[in-house]
Fold this sequence. Notes:
Number of strands: 0
Order of helices and strands: HHHHHHHH
Amino acid sequence: MLPEKYDRKSCWSDYLVHFEHIASINGWHQLEMAKFLGASLKGEAQKAFTDLPPHERHSYQAMCNALSRRSGVEKQGLIYRVRLQNRTQGPDESIVELGQALKRLIVRAYSRVSDEFAIDAFRNALKDPELKKVCIKPTPGI
């Protein structure tokens, strides 16, 4: 099984999960992962690979670091936190769809999040004031 191509148009973190899942299925070691990752890049992502010194093109970690820097992963957490703060329920968006969208934003914005934080984000994003009342904070210890 081969990974999809990556061109920096999609989210690097999502692609990395996909790539590492394929690597696990295939039983690839670090050197094989570096080779397949290099072969899977195209467009702007290929430029990040090309800009690496030749000896780093065989290092999976060096390649991932370069692609992370190019994609601005370090700054993306802040971007997702701002999006999370400003996220509200769309006019035709169901509660389930809102919850899924918020979960995705929370995962991208923070590495660890409490249930209370997630419930607050959900409550704040709801448009219906009656539903906001129903979303009460969990009682500690229950």
